[in-house]
Write a structure and sequence with these properties.
Layout (H helix, E strand, L loop, with lengths): L1 H30 L1 H10 L6 H9 L7 H9 L6 H8 L4 H12 L9 H15 L3 E2 L1 E2 L2 E2 L4 E6 L11 H4 L2 H5 L1 H5 L21 H8 L1 E4 L11 H8 L3 E5 L6 E9 L9 E3 L1 H6 L8 E9 L9 E3 L2
Parallel strand pairs: 4-8, 5-7
Antiparallel strand pairs: 1-9, 2-3, 4-9, 5-8, 6-7, 6-9, 7-10
Length: about 300
């Protein structure tokens, strides 16, 4: 009976295969126990690994063990931390916002020394630069305050709105409509003449802020120290509600205390902080950047 003979042969082969499969499974587990346990730790669906690994073990005589194991998992085996990072990439901006939410008070107010120290660490680590609330004992009266919109500053004698902005900036209604301040900044012009203006001068005016230098602790008794310290000092501004950050320079003094604002930002600063519309003001963090070699560029910082 051909049908019965074929069925009998099939049963014999199936029985031999199951025995061989069981032996291979046991041998693989015994020989590669540690590796399999490691793989099961970094891959969540470890049940799916075993069948493929066992099947591959049947080819062990022709493949090195390491190749067989890698093929069974169909992955390059990495440390557990790297595997987790690939599954869920870290959102750096959201991580910063979460840290700031827990570190800052609900209302904008002067921070305590402990709060400022914690923010030094958070901002330095997040942005990869030395961020400080004070340098050599010199500081501002606060590091968390309300910023308001300022006008463009004249970079040199005769600078006008026609010469001040690029075509793209002219097209930006918020930046163009801010106009130009009638006077110079606290440090005078950024350069003596238009033909002498460098890109550094352009960037300093574009990303300038005005801070209340006159309210700094011991300002009147340390006037000479503070005047040289504040001039074009780099500061990191962070919008703690949305996460925008900008490297700026101190280019002017102000605003007056009666305004209820604690610092001001150029039109470009306000626009890139996300505060270029509506009341054009909001709470920001502003900390010094310790950059004696002047290697950190001005402008928005992306995370």
């Amino acid at each position: 009976m051909p049908g019965k003979r074929q069925k009998s042969q099939y049963q014999v082969l199936r029985k031999k295969w199951l025995v061989r499969h069981k032996q291979a499974k046991a041998a693989l587990h015994q020989k590669h126990k540690e590796a399999l346990e490691f793989v099961s730790d970094i891959l969540p669906d470890k049940e799916k690994i075993a069948p493929a690994a066992v099947g591959l073990a049947m080819l062990a005589s022709s493949l090195p063990a390491s190749n067989a194991l890698a093929a069974a998992t169909n992955q390059v085996i990495r440390p557990k931390e790297e595997a987790v990072a690939e599954i869920a990439p870290i959102d750096k901006k959201q991580a910063l916002l979460d840290e700031l939410k827990s570190a800052l008070p609900q209302q904008v107010r002067p921070l305590t020394v402990d709060e400022e120290g914690k923010l030094d660490e958070i901002l330095s680590r997040t942005f990869g630069m030395e961020v400080r609330h004070e340098i050599n004992g010199l500081r501002l009266n606060r590091t968390y305050g309300v910023i308001g919109a300022e006008q463009h500053l004249m970079r040199y004698p005769g600078d006008t709105m026609a010469t001040h902005l690029s075509p793209s900036e002219v097209a930006n209604k918020m930046i163009y409509s801010s106009g130009m301040a009638p006077g110079r900044g606290a440090w005078g012009y950024f350069t003596r003449a238009g033909q002498n203006m460098t890109q550094k001068d352009v960037e300093r005016e574009r990303w300038y802020i005005a801070v209340q230098t006159f309210l700094a602790p011991e300002y009147n008794t340390r006037l000479s120290d503070y005047r040289g310290f504040f001039k074009f000092r780099k500061m990191l501004l962070v919008n703690p509600k949305a996460g925008q950050a900008i490297v700026t320079v101190i280019g002017d003094a102000g605003p007056a205390e009666w305004t209820g604002k604690h610092l001001g930002g150029s039109p470009e600063v306000m626009y890139h902080l996300g505060l270029g519309s509506g009341s054009r003001k909001g709470g920001v963090l502003y900390f010094f950047i310790d950059d004696p070699s002047d290697t950190i560029p001005l402008g928005p910082v992306k995370l």
